[in-house]
Fold this protein.
Amino acid sequence: MKRIGKRVSEAELKKLLRYEPDTGDFYRLSGPDKGKKAGTDSAQYYLIGLKTDTLKGIFYAHHLAWVYMTGTWPEKEVDHKDANKKNNKWENLRLATSSQQKQNSLVRSQDIKTSQYKGVFWLKTESKWVAKICVNKTRKYLGRFRREEDAALAYRFAAHEHFGDFARVE
C-alpha cells in the first residue's frame, strides 16, 4: 500500500503527532485520541492515518519518522536496518536504493526449499549447489559447488562486495 493523498509537511505532521525516536512510536497530539499511540499494525508495516481539513491519507510510519526527523520526504526508500519492518526506531532507519533494500531482506521461506542459505540453490541435474545474486535487477551467477557451505561463502563475498552494510546473508 502506498501513501494515499498528498504529502504531509513537517510542520503539519508535528501539529498532529509526536514521534519518539527511541521507541519508534507516534502519539496523537489532538482530538479524542490525544495522547494515545497512533497507527495500525498491518501485516508488514506500521500504518498511520491522518485527517485534517486539508489532508487525508494513510502513511507508512517509517516515512513519517523520516519527515519528522529530517524535515523532508525520503528521496529513496527507507530501509529498516534490522529487517524488522515494524521497528521504526530512528537508529534503525536509513535511506536505501531498491536494490540495497532487497539485499537487506531476510531469507524467505520459499527460498529455503533446497538450502538454508540465502542465494544458494540445489541443482538436481548436476548434483551441485549453485550461488546467485541479484544486482541492479540483474541476476549474477556465482558458480557451482560441491558443498553447500562453499556456495554460501561465494554469496556472502559477493553480497558484501556489492552491498556493503546492506548485505544480509542470513
